[in-house]
């Protein structure tokens, strides 16, 4: 097993298309706090264009530069960790649209990893303030509140219908009931 795989295992990155630059792991001070910076690259050959659906058989989807993303990962040994990921950009020759490579470690328009979001959800079960939960996960308060709002919307149930059968358990009536 290469050192790249050990680092990916430590960071809980299961995407095989991400390659970590093992020579370029740096610890810098950000706002007087030591922060670990890890650099990586995400690239693959897409199967089809997400815009027009054209299948990439005759190399009609070409590599078209890269886009750098800054992704917040869970802390390692109480040191905040940030992954600088260069996502591959692609150009579809059929429709002319461009798109980025996708990964499952982060949602499409987010810079907070899904592991950090899971840790926030676990921390919400404990009695503490929103600000302290956001600070302990190295997230500012506004993205934390947006995640909280979107997470609550996902958990809401639809009560706009009545089920066909209603069950009533332990019904007690009085003696003076007419009818």
Please, could you describe this protein's structure?
The protein is an alpha+beta fold. The protein has 2 domains: 3-111, no CATH class; 114-156. It is built from 4 helices and 5 strands, in the order H-E-E-E-E-E-H-H-H. The chain has helices spanning 3-10, 114-123, 130-136, 141-155, and strands at residues 18-30, 33-42, 61-76, 79-92, 98-100. Strands 1, 2, 3, 4 and 5 form a 5-stranded mixed β-sheet that branches. The longest helix is centred in the last third of the chain and has 15 residues, at 141-155. It is flat. The model has no long low-confidence stretch (mean pLDDT 85).
Compose a concise summary of this entry.
By secondary structure, the protein is α+β, with helices and mostly antiparallel strands. The chain folds into two domains: 3-111, no CATH class; 114-156. It has helices spanning 3-10, 114-123, 130-136, 141-155; strands spanning 18-30, 33-42, 61-76, 79-92, 98-100.
Radius of gyration: 24 Å
| Number of discrete helical segments | 4
Termini, distance in Å? 79 Å
Helix content: 10-25%
Number of domains: 2
Overall pLDDT level: 85
Strand content: 25-35%
- What is the chains' assembly state? single chain
**Biggest sheet record:** 5 strands, mixed
- Taken from the alpha-carbon principal axes, the silhouette is flat
Strand runs, count: 5
Q: Structural class, from helix and strand content?
A: alpha+beta
**Stretches where pLDDT falls below 50 for ≥5 residues?**
none
Order of helices and strands: HEEEEEHHH
């Amino acid at each position: 097993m290469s050192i790249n795989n050990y680092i990916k295992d430590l960071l809980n990155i299961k995407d095989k298309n991400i390659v970590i630059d093992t020579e370029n792991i740096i610890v810098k001070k950000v706002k007087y706090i030591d922060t670990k910076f890890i650099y990586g690259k995400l690239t693959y050959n897409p199967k089809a264009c997400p815009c027009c659906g054209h299948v990439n058989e005759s190399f009609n989807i070409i590599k078209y530069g890269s886009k750098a993303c800054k992704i917040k990962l869970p802390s390692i040994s109480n040191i905040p960790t940030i992954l600088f990921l260069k996502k591959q950009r692609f150009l579809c020759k059929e429709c002319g649209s461009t798109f980025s490579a996708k990964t499952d470690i982060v949602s499409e328009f987010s810079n907070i990893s899904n592991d950090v979001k899971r840790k926030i959800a676990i921390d919400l079960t404990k009695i503490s303030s929103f600000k302290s939960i956001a600070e302990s996960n190295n997230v500012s308060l506004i993205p934390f509140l947006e995640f909280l709002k979107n997470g609550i919307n996902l958990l809401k149930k639809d009560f706009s219908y009545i089920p066909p059968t209603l069950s009533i358990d332990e019904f007690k009536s009085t003696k003076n009931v007419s009818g």
